[in-house]
Design a protein that fits this description.
The protein has 255 residues and is mainly alpha-helical. The chain has 2 domains: 36 residues; 201 residues, MetI-like fold (Orthogonal Bundle), CATH 1.10.3720.10. 82% of the residues lie in helices and 0% in strands. The chain contains 11 helices and no strands. The longest helix has 35 residues.
Amino acid sequence: MGKRSFSIAMIVAVIGFTAWSLVNTEFNVGRIYEGFFVKPFFRQFLSGLWPLNWAILGDVLKQSLITIQIAWIGTLIAAAISLPIAFIAARNITPAVAAGTAARFFFNVDRSVDVLIVALVLVAAVGLGPLAGALAIAIHTIGSMGKLFTEAIEAIDRGPVEALESTGASRAQVVRWAVVPQVLPYITSYFLYRLELNIRSAVVLGIVGAGGIGFLLLDNIKQFQYQNVSMILLVIVILVMAIDFISARLRKAVV
């Protein structure tokens, strides 16, 4: 099959799959229009958002802090576990091929399970609250951080490593003095980046009962307290924007 025929076949396949997907997702412009502009719910929801209920600001800020703490503890646990495993997974560091393959496979499997699924299991195991959220983030983040750490280790300059090896230094000494100084800025940067993502995830985890501001949001939506909902959403937006800004500045300073 020539390139032109292959391109045509791919275009037809994409169009066909898109059409099939529209049918299976029951995509209907009329239903969308009716839901937003004909039925009263959306208008009532929007009108109910104003004015904001400033009386709950203290509680919202408290839950925001808990959300940040959930992400912080989860990210710390994940970093403490994934970093040693990353040195085993890195092909240019580990002497055991089988162990390295197993470590990389573990990272792939771990990050393939969505954090919400992990949180649902942990909520059932340890109960509602921030503990389930922190553990869910920790478990899910091990694979993601491990992959980033492994790639950072594999990208090091071999010069310092070979120089130390030529002096008869042990493997531990080579890692300590030739590898760690090279990867530390990137590991710090990846940690901050992952923390930023985990704070966003922690907001969502509250919806499945894992504590934090997301749980407060869901509780007020269920009670139709839309003025509270608007205040919570405003704080979430400000929180995410602030974390993005601070994280970007810190990562730029580190690397």
